[in-house]
Structure formats: structure tokens, C-alpha cells
Amino acid sequence: MEAEKRQPSFDDLDLVAEASQLLTVVDLDNVLHKVISLVSRAVGAQKTSLFLHDGSQIDWNHIFTMRELSPDQSIKVVSRVMEDGFVGWVVRNKKGDIIGDTEQDDRWIVFPDDPIKTRSAMCVPFLTDGNVIASATLIHESPYHFQPYHLRLVEIIANQTSIAIRNAQLFNHLREQRRQLRAVLQSMRDVLLVLDKDRKLVMTNDAALPLLGVSAQGEAVGLPIEHFMMVDDIFEPIVEMFKSGLSDTQRWSFDARSERRQTDYKVRISLWDADDELLGYVIVMHDTTQLHDLSRFKDEMLRVASHDLRSPLALVAGYADMASMDTPDKDAPIHDHINTIKQQVEHMSNLVDDILRVERIRTSPLELHERTDVSSLVKLVLVNLRPLAASKHITLDNQIELDGVPRIVADPVLIRQSMENLISNAVKYTEENGRVMVEAYYDDNRFYFVVEDSGMGIPEEHQPYVFESFYRVNSREHKNKVKGSGLGLSLVKNVIRRHNGEVWLKSDVGVGSRFGFWLPLPDTTPADTE
Ligand code: ADP
Known about the structure:
By secondary structure, this protein is an alpha+beta fold. It contains 14 helices and 17 strands. Strands 2-1-5-4-3 form a 5-stranded antiparallel beta sheet, with helices on both faces. It has a 5-stranded antiparallel beta sheet with strand order 7-6-10-9-8, sandwiched between helices. The chain has a 5-stranded mixed beta sheet with strand order 12-14-15-17-16. A hairpin with a 4-residue loop joins strand 8 (about 250-260) and strand 9. It is elongated. Residues about 525-530 have low confidence and may be disordered. The chain binds adenosine-5'-diphosphate. The site of adenosine-5'-diphosphate has 21 residues, from helix 12 and helix 14.
């Protein structure tokens, strides 16, 4: 039995020094094994158990019992000693203690199948910030083996190692989270690219590797996004988007196509920031090829069906006329029926004509004019649309700042039609005596055309779809009051896209809508004369 006031020996100091070195170990199991070995050696314990605690919970993944126990048994034993036994007492009181003779102390629970007959025990908590994060129980078969000196020594080792345990736990936790994140990212079918603020690749998932032309993430990390323009044409619009410097919006979303891979994508770029500091960008690309194929199929079907409908419609109209002529009695009720047939046939013919007209515009090559003056186009459009606005007593205001705007290469007829379409929609979907405002201006790179109205607005859930063919907002205000085919905006989008521009929309129900587009302006920096 050792003297109570024993002086520290060199061996003890060695153990304490060894304990402090554990800080460099990050593997949790390794740290815990070393702790068990240190405390056992320090006090000559025959067996040591160690549990990790998280508040009042036990970390079941990290329990080291004195003997081999099946998972079921260890849950029973550990729960019991936590509830009624010595460990529970130490954890609740947050201080270590010694049981000199287990037969005299009812905190010691005897399990009938214990291979060692324990006569003395010591249990020490490991504390960080006043919380018990672990507890070690040491035993010996002789009574009064453990002395206050031992308790002190193990407490010192516990102090030294609790930070190491905490660090290893945190590291373990981070590693686990990282593993989960990787698993989620790798199972994603969407392409994911994370860039730093200099637009260099930081991270990606497996789905992105073929697009980047590499077989492992490591080969691409660190390269700027511009580098990948050589690998796949999908990166051209993305780089273009960055160049346009739209960095004040939180999220950009656009459709793009890789001709090289014959694949359509919905591309979303979000800012990656923390505490108002820009850290980089997250790009997610969703493969929409099937959707686009379906849409192309739908267009083709419509085109064919419209062609085939034309002749029978003309035939029905002709027979309706003949039936009308064959019934000289103008008051006969049959004339009402015939008129209804004629009206409906006319409505259908208009629809078919619309479809075919749109189809023609979509598929015909652009008639590009080298030097289209957008300023005169805007003025012409305003003149053309003034009577339509006046017919509903709508004020048609404008704010045109186009002095000195460079001329652009464009199809003037289609651009004019697109402008007219936006204004006529604004008039159509605004009540009498409302207001429509047309703005046109430009900056270094782009010409902008915007139409704002004080009309009925578009509910948010419909906004993503109004540029699709045949889409009409399905609300009472829209349907009842205004006739239309749902083709105008899809045509505008198609025309503007073909000129490498973009359309957009902002709308609030009951307040009004703001539709706009931009077109790229030619690079006006003076050419190098060398
Ligand atoms: P159409 O006007 O022939 O129905 P469009 O393609 O031009 O077809 O427009 C699609 C739908 O978008 C319209 O049916 C309408 O519901 C909505 N819309 C378009 N412009 C406006 C606007 N300025 N204000 C409110 N709704 C609009």
C-alpha cells in the first residue's frame, strides 16, 4: 500500500508528459486506448473502463468496458452503472472518488458473471468547460488498493487528456460530416462546381468530371473556370455570365446547351458568402435534355397538326357558307347554329395561323442587318402602339436614353415585333385608364428595353412559365378578360435568345408587371491599329 503523501516519481512525470503529447493525436479510438493505458499504468489498475458522455447521454459508439460484452449486454451493464452505480455517482457529482472496499459501498454493483472479483475501485471524470465528457473507472481485486495520491494523479492525467479527447471528438465529427457531405454530393446527378472568389475551382462532384475533361477531382481543382472553355462549350455562357458582373443578385439561373455533348442544362449560380464577405460561387447544372427533347417534340407535333388542320378547317368554313346560302329563310334558327360554327372555325383558324407564324419565325434564319439602330426602332414601336393604348385610355409614357447608342447586328423586324409584343401585352393586361411605361437605355455592354405596366400582375407561381409556348395564366382575371394564344412571350424569348440576349420579368399581383430584355452591344473599344 502506498504512502498517502507520496512525492511524484519520475515515472509519474513521464506519464503526465505522455498524456500531454496526446494532443497531437486526432484519431478518437487511438486517443481513448492511450488514455486507458496511461491511467491503468499510473495506478496499477487491473482493468479500466472508459465511457464518453454527451450531456446525460452515453456515446454508445465509444464505450470501452473491462471485459468483452455483446452490444446487448453492454447496454444493460452501462445503463445500470450509470443509473445506480459508481460511474453515475461520479458523473452527477462531477468529481472523482475511490471505493476502498466494494463490499462496504453500495455504489458498487456486482454482476454475477464478472470474471474478476473487484474489491477496490476508483472513478474519475474528464471535464471540459465544467461538463463531463468522459469517465474512467479503474479496479483492483485487493481492497484499499487505490489511495488519494492515485486519485490526484489520474485527475491530473484526465485534465491533460480531456482536451485531446475533445479535439479528437470534434475531428471525428468533422470527418463524419465531411464523409456524409461527400456521399450526398457524389450521389447527386446534377453537376456541382464550387469556385473561390477568383473563380478557381475548389470542389466538384463526380457528375462534373466528364464536363471538366478529367478523371479525378484533384486534376481540376485550382484551375480557373475560363480554363474549361477549351474542354466544353457549356462554360462559355457561364464565363460570360461572370463577365457581365451581375454580382449584386444572389442567384442567377439560365438555360444553356453543350453542343459538344448535345446536352441541355439549367444552370444556377449562387453566391457563397459568409458575414457579407464573398467567398466564392456555387454552380449547379441540371440536365434538362429530356425536357427540351419533349418540348421540341411538342413543337414538331403542333407544327404538323396545324398544317393538317388547315384544309379541313377551310372545308368546314366553306360548307357552313353553303349551308347558310341553301337556307334562304334568314330567320331560321339554323342560321344561329351556322354562325356559331363560323365563329369557332375562325377562332381555330386564327390559332392555327398563329402557331404556323410562330413556327416560321422560330425556324427561319435571322435576317441580320449589320447596323440596326435600336433608337429608331424604339421610336417607331411607340408610334405604332400609341393607338392601341389610346383605345383603352392608357397613358403610354417613355423614358428613352439612347443618344449615341452603337448600332447592333440584329434582325430589325423580329426585334421590333418583340418590343411591340411586350407593349401590347402591357396594354392588354392593364385596366382602362392605367399606365404603361417604356424605358430604353444602354451601358457599356448592353442595350436594355423595359416595359412596365400598372396592370393585373402575374401570380408568382406562374411567373417561371409565361415565356413557354401556349402558357396562359390560369386565373379568372387573365382568362376571362383577355383573349390570346400564349405564344407571344415565347416568341419574344426565342428571338432575344437568338440574338444572344436575355428576357426577364418582375411582377406583383394587383400592382403591375415589368418585362424586359437586353441585347449585347458590339465591343466599341477602338481596334488595335498595329
Ligand atoms: P397571350 O397574351 O397571347 O396569352 P403571351 O405569351 O404573350 O400570350 O403571354 C403569356 C401569358 O402571360 C398571358 O396569357 C398572360 O396571362 C401573361 N402576361 C403576359 N404579359 C402580361 C402582363 N403585362 N401583365 C400580366 N400578365 C401578362
